[in-house]
Amino acid sequence: MSIILMLLFFSLVTVNISFNEGCIESERQALFMFKQDLINHTNRLASWTLDEDCCDWVGVVCDNVTGHVLQLHLRNPLSSPADLYASDADHEAFERSKLRGKINPSLLELKHLSYLDLSNNAFEGIPIPKFLGSVESLRYLNLSRAGFKGLVPHQLGNLSSLQILDLHADHDHLSVANLQWLSGLSSLEHLDLCNVILTEVSNWLKVLNTLPSLQKLYMSGCQLPQVSPPTNLNLSSLAILDLSFNSLENTWVDWIFQIKSLVSLDLSCNSFRGCIFDGLKNMTSLTHLDLSFNTFNSSIPDWLYNLNSLQFLSLIGNNLQGLISSAVGNMSSAVSLDFSRNELEGKIPRSMGNLCNLKSIDYSDLNNNNLTGRIPNSMGILQSLQLLHLNGNHLSGEIPLSLKNCTYLMLLDFDDNEFHGHIPKWLGHDVPKLEVLILRSNKFSGYIPDQLCGLDSLQVLDLAYNNLFGSLPRCLSNFSAMVKTSGTTETYASLAASMWSGRFFENTILSRTFVASIMMKGQMLEYSTTLDLVRSIDFSNNNLSGEIPVEVTNLLGLRSLNLSHNLLTGTIPKNIGLMGTLESVDFSLNKLSGPIPESMSTLTFLNHLNLSYNNLIGQIPSSTQLQSLEPSNFVGNQLCGLPLPNKCFANGTIQTTRNRRGENDKGFVTDWFRFGMAYGFVIGFWSVFLPLVIDRRRWRSLYALFTFQKNLGNR
Question: Where is the Leucine-rich repeat-containing N-terminal plant-type domain positioned along the sequence (predicted)?
């Protein structure tokens, strides 16, 4: 018995020693040489020193028994600031954290390396190293968005064990002359060639047909030539297919409908037209379908609503016409529906209430949806609903009481409709998770209910262009999310993670669903992925009166405050300078009086300020921000000092040159001059803009078309 115990002891000691061998010295030297050729502005690789075990280095994973290096995780640790309106600081931090330099062939010493991720770095135009094709142990290779340029080396075809290959390019920096090398990757399950130019590759589909294990294929923006499909299609394992942004046409797609295993299909941003493909009706395994931004111009066929497995359907930006059939209620698995930017008309079907799994509905429109009537009460049955976009239609009536049952609502956007009545008080307590509430450009009347202050998660509140009256609520400081100077923990990003899995839908349906158009800096801006960073209040163009409550200065995280075109009186709160994150303030066309508070000069992020046409007096405070603004932002007051041409006396009053003929004559001439200028402005303004106001749909359509074409050109 003692002999057995002794043997057991020695075996445990041997195992313990083997688990603590550390990394192989030759591999540590190879990694250190690799580091020497990298430029690392943020010192990400500070732990990579020769006096440390390389298995403890950041990004290095070793075998616990042998000590061999198995994995290198060197992707950029920061996520790309995808939103156009992300801060300069976010963009700068992302760029600085990128690795630069070149790839040292010392990686060939890592004979057991199975995982290499260099994505989201900046190798600044160097080609993908050919020697990577000799690291035969690789099973995972991710070089996406890493700044590589030139031809993809055919030597990668030697990686016969490779299961995942991601070459997603920056714009069109990578290309392939011949794709035949792919047929050597017999184990490949995941292939991403997005933005890799394949214009000259006439056999791309034939080559892909030699990969029987392929499950996920991403070929967005590859400029694919339309080729004849192989006679015997051998893609029976394919589950996800992304062919977006390729200018594909109807005559070519029939082969896709033979792949019955597909669960996700993205054909967005192509040149498809006419009727939605009949071939889709037999693809009963589909859970995700994106046909957005084509030119389909038929009605939505009823059979599409009978694809019972469909969870996410996006038809954005087509010319689809007709009614939304009551058959939409058959989509029992639906989680997200997006029919925005079409020419649909009629009422929202009551059968929508059958979709008990629905979390997101988007009937919004930046050009031509024409839905009418009331929101059906059955919508209140959708207790899982989190996002409801109905903006840009002709919907009317009051907000239905039944929506109080949608207690998970996070975004409610009814912009640009014909809703009327009072803003419901129940919004403030029955929909507690609301983060974005947009009711602008409707016919709501009455007071702003104090109950809205119960929405402590609210980040965006837009009630502009209605018929609201009364004073501003003094409880505005109860908006806890606007008091904070950083993002909330429960944001759109976390919601996205729970609703979508996989990169495919992050780039397509997801990017459209989490969108809100918000008035910022004097213009309407569209926010998506950084919407959780926006804090905005817009009460402009109503009939609100009384003073600006001092409590508003407690909203330390607010980025935009627009109270223009109302009847507000009193002074600007003197502590407005405490609102250090303010970027945009508009108090124009009110009846505010008194001086501009000195504290406003401390708002270092302020880049849009409009105080014109009030009764403000005195000297404009001195600051880099205020003096750099246009004089038009201060006109219509009794102000002096830069950027206005009026100089100030020592006591802060305006210096003017008196007319010899006396004050009476000057006043007479000045009044008539102002009258003439005002009359000319009114006539000129409405002669240009009245037709656009009358034909608002055409104006919005042109704007949406311009925005889409610009985004397409920036790909």
Answer: 25-63
Looking at per-residue confidence, does 23 or 446 come out higher? 446
CA 541 to chain CA centroid, nearest Å: 28
Strand pairing category for 99-101 and 38-40: antiparallel
The domain defined by 239-405 folds into 3.80.10
Pairing of strands 150-151, 174-175: parallel
Same fold? 239-405, 410-618 = yes
Q: What pLDDT is attached to residue 613? A: 98
- Closest among 352, 398, 360, 359 to 379, alpha carbons compared: 352
167 Cα distance to chain centroid = 23
- Around 524, how many Cα atoms within 13 Å sit in the side-chain half-sphere? 13
Cα 664 versus chain centre, distance: 59
Q: Structural domain boundaries of the chain?
A: 239-405, 410-618
The CATH fold of domain 410-618: 3.80.10
Residue 686, pLDDT above cutoff 60: no
Dihedrals phi, psi of 484, to nearest 5 degrees: -70, 150
Give the least confident one: 154-168, 409-423, 689-703.
689-703
Length of the chain counted residue by residue:
715
- Whether 514 shows a pLDDT value over 80: the answer reads no
Residue 644's contacts (CB-CB under 8 Å, 6 or more residues apart) are 620, 631, 634, 635
Strand-pair category, 216-218 with 174-175: unpaired
Are the C-beta atoms of residues 322 and 345 closer than 8 Å to each other?
yes
Concatenating the DSSP letter of every residue in 568-618 gives EES---TTGGG-TT--EEE--SS--EEPPPGGGGG-TT--EEE--SSEEEE
Q: What would the pLDDT profile of 287-310 be if each residue is shown by its tens digit?
A: 999 999 999 999 999 999 999 999
Q: Is 362 helix (H, G, I), strand (E, B) or coil?
A: strand
DSSP code per residue over 137-184:
T-SEEE-TTS---EEPPGGGGG-TT--EEE---STT-EE-S--GGGGG
Q: What's the pLDDT at 581?
A: 93
Q: Tokens 């709501």 belong to which residue?
A: 444
One-letter amino acid at 539 equals F
Through-space distance between the first and last CA atoms of the chain, rounded to whole angstroms: 73
